[in-house]
Fold:
Amino acid sequence: MAAVCDYTMLLPLLERAKEKNAYFLVTPKTGARSGVVPQCGTAFAPGAASVPQRAPQPGEQYRFHFDMTKCIGCKCCVVACNEQNGNPADINWRRVGEIEGGWYPNTHRSYLSMGCNHCMEPTCLEGCPVDAYSKDPVTGVVLHSAEACIGCQYCTWNCSYAVPQYNPERGVVGKCDMCHERLDKGRAPACVSACPEAAIGIEIVNIAEWKREYATNANAPGLPSADDSISSTRITLPDNLPPDTRKADFFRVKPEDPHWPLVAMTVLTQLSVGAFVTIWLLQLFGKTTRLGVAALVSLVVAGLALSASTLHLGRPIYAYRALKMWKRSWLSREVLLFGCFSGVAFVYAGLLWFKLPGSLAIGALTSLLGAAGVTASACIYLVPARPAWNSKRTVAGFFLTAMLLGPLLAASLGIGDRRWLSIAIVVATAGHLLNKAGKFFWLTASDSFELQASARLLSTTLASSFLGSNALLCLGGIILPLFVPSWAGACASLLTVLAGEVLSRYVFFVSVVPKNMAASYVAAGKAAA
Amino acid sequence: MSLKRQLGLDILKERYAYASDPVMGHTSEQKIPDTWVSTTCGYCSVGCGMFIGVKDGRAVSVRGNPDHAVNSGLLCPKGLSEHYTLEASNRALYPLLRNKRGKLARIEWDEALAIMAEKFHGVQEKYGRDALGVLSTGQLVTEEFYALGKLVQLGLGTKNYDGNTTLCMASAVSGYKRSFGSDGPPGAYEDLSQADVIFLIGANIADNHPILCQYLDANPGRTLIVADPRVTKTAMMADLYLPLKPRSDIALLNGMIHLLIENGLIDREYVAAHTTGFDQLEESVRKYTPDHVSQLTGLTPEQIYKTALIYGKAKAPFIGWTMGVNHSTKGTETVNVINNLALITGNVGRPGASPFSITGQCNAMGTREAGFASSLPGYRKFESASDREELAALWGIGAERLPTSRGWAYPDIIEGAVARKIRALWVIATNPIVSFPNLGVLQHSLDSLNFLVVQDGFHPTPTTEVADLVLPAAIWGEKEGTYTNSERRVSKVNRAVKPPGEARTDFDIFLDLAKKLGCYGELFPGWTQPKDAFEEWKRISAGRLCDYSGLTYELIERHGGIQWPHPAGATEVKTTRLYSDGHFSTEDGRARLLPVEWEPFPEQPNTDFPFVLNTGRTVEHWHTRTKTGNVPILERLSPNAWLEMNPRDAQSLGLKPHDRIDVISARGRVKSVELRVTEIIAPGQVFMPFHYAEANVNQVTQSAFDSISREPNYKQCAVRIERAQIAPQYWGVRGSPRARVQA
Structure:
């Protein structure tokens, strides 16, 4: 600020308004005026005043403070963050969203600037299969190691704020680390020092106290509930937010990434598990012919599924690391269980092929591990940050896929009694369709933004895919088995249902509307070349 | 992608490495430079001091200058990413000439300048000297403006020379001239921190001059009044927001003057000592009673009383304005009413109190001072024989060589080309196809030219694409000189990197052309660098309001910018204000109180075109986006245009948020704009940003100009909104800045 100041000029209007000839009173907005007053003759270092001057003590951690009453939505913090971290334009560890409410001319648009909330119970960390995340014991900063990361992106699903972002150029995730290495040296984080309004600051918080009182200070319109992970960010809200304030991007809902390798992986693992269970059941009921062939085919399917899954990783060569956190992460458990399933299934197929003894017991183990794998697989999707997935319908759906595809494979390989298999297929399909219909009505009837938005996607942008997948299931799972009772019919049935399942799983992935902070009204652009 | 990367063995560790730097601290290693070059931001006229970080001859980062008087180290998002403009993929690299097949093809500089001189000469021989038009900018350094002015007026000898500043600041210039006798904003930014009342009229500083907001933050006692028909970010910061009807500010201000006179809240001593015309003013505002003003503005009488009394009772009230005032057929007169209000209350040139035009471009002020377009250099008047004689004597030329009146202003040059009176046009660092109102007329105008030269740092732009000759210019960061900001602060601009390809500084282009024209020796004797122009300009400005004679490059650098006047012999560098002694630049030294009448804006909504269209900016972009459209992070943050409409209007038209709509006026149609349904905008009004060539709002704006300043009336025109005739798109819509404007 200019070096010459003359504060004798300052005479608050309030004071004069109280003089006797004034008949009105102007009330300054509370909280909006605590800007840094520059001292005469000295330049102030941007952001320096907004950073604690000591390290947190035991029981404390650093946190962001965001003052919504000061933010003017200039997005300096976003640009500064990208410069600080050398990130490409389409990766923004700090983002600014808009919330809006009121009626002209009493309209209020406020801005939300957010990096990582350095949560007290970080969901990113809990789900990580490779232990790439850590919560710094001194500062409480949630750190992510690019070295350890294998690019599975499970953390990007687990965070309610969409903080971790996958960088396809690197094959790993990255996130805001509060510029902790700047803080260590007494420097402000990039966002803090770039803010022209001093709206972002770093504070020290007592963890126990915050866990008691976060509900009133960590939540804001346009932000997901802080309950999911106990966000540590303190937000100062304007005291006059209109009651209808909501995110500016309320009506802009776009389909999510389809994750094609995962579409393939989930459908094929469920096919394989369903097939092995069917084989084992047939064996149990005394069928012996061509079970070896069926088991071999199912084994190949399992192999394809597991290979497909590595294509989803940013660093496929380190896929094995995913086993590491089996005690905590469903993703690790899925990898472990499907790994065991494949191994035991290999033995089972071998026993059947060479008609060796003990196959029934090994078959039982295969089935058990397969079912456990499908369960683990489904549990991956039961995350609060992705509400449309976070339902028992997801588990049911995965099992119904297995129950439908298993008998279909058996029927098309010509093993078992086609009549009984057809009944199983029709029943599974009906269950499957009912489950999907149930989900759709659940979404439509919900009052949560994300679930309603998912329903909106299914009935607009994704309507043809959604209806198409159901039609394929109906055709391949009900009409063909009932009306074309031949081997050719069974093969056509398998292909139709497989197509329906793939389309249906695609819709599952793209129709989820994740929890997220408010964004701008106009969608973010793709990075310029 | 390499196999190692695909397998995951390589995660680009080097590219994403961090390192510690004594200046920047812990940061991305690739952003740490070898050297820092001090300079001033090249976007708007706030004039922020900054450094460019240079590594291996490339600009890799920028940072604000913490010791600079203006910005204390802070920058807006455009400034924070300004280094990307230097390596933008759309930089102009080589001189290009349109060949027989109609394509622009590379030629040598020498040939380009020879052709330019020959074509200009040919046109001027055949159709008269004034058949050449020159359209300049507010983006060059003052030294270049000074050289260009001499080159155009004395070398080429045409007076039809103006800048894009007429699309922006001309009303403020004319208003100051009429009220105070000279251009020149009287106040300083510091006033924003010292005023007890800040009254912003048609100024959205939070979006357009965000770094000024810190001056308000440093002033916790202030009362902020914002008058704007749209609930802008700035309006939301206000203690008292006045949602007035479009273009009713004259009525509001006259109403305030009426109430202040009636309630004895004026400074009669000041009025008697320093102004003329009070009686006529008093008479003219008599009819602006609160009830009448209430009808005209849509404000309640109580709001009008409140505003008048807050202003009238303030110890140091500041009035700031920008394009809401200037972009109007009544722009000049609106500035006069603002000045009237400040004058009758004695609030001119006192700490905290001034009528202050917040300028647009980084060096719009420089061209006003030195440019020889809207006035003779040094705010001298074309009409004044003594001013002409003084200047001619300083230059050692005959006074008869100086024009006795201003040539055509920007819109008149454009219309002159339509009338075939302008035959050749030289456009420098501006992009009229996106920025000039009523695109149809402009295109007709450019099509009518015999020869169009466009000199720009960027190619292709919509305007370079239609040029006959394109001259590649160096931009900010590649050249040296000075900028003057809104508060008359002269700051240094320095070269950090070499221009790309064969691009040359505008200064060198002007000198080289002068050599081809044979006037180099006379106009620019021995000049080789901007400093030569600066030294001469110091002599020319000596004794004038904008006195540079005590400034040197070293002194400016040392103080991070110095406000003029800074006459030779000045011992102290301090905040300066104009007219603090009540002595104005008029012949009798008194300011003029000028009666002004409210008038409705020219194109009222009607049954065919029921909406009033307002235009403006967004914080992420600059002007026509030739620069910011290629800065990836800014494009990411603001990728496409939108149209704001009130939910009540959207409902009655059956439109939903994010629908694609067309904006149609009597003049044209902007196609496929994303609809923003919002209570920011009043029913009956719509708003659209003007930055986007792909959705060019100037396809619908009108050819209506202020009769005094010639500034276009961008802020209001009548439009209709229809659902777009193409299929709606829901997301990921992004156009290329290079997209040609559809005729």
Summary: Chain B has four domains: 19-86, 96-168+374-471+495-551, 180-357, 611-723. The longest helix of chain B spans residues 109-127. Residues 19-86 of chain B form a domain with the N-terminal domain of TfIIb fold (CATH 2.20.25.90).
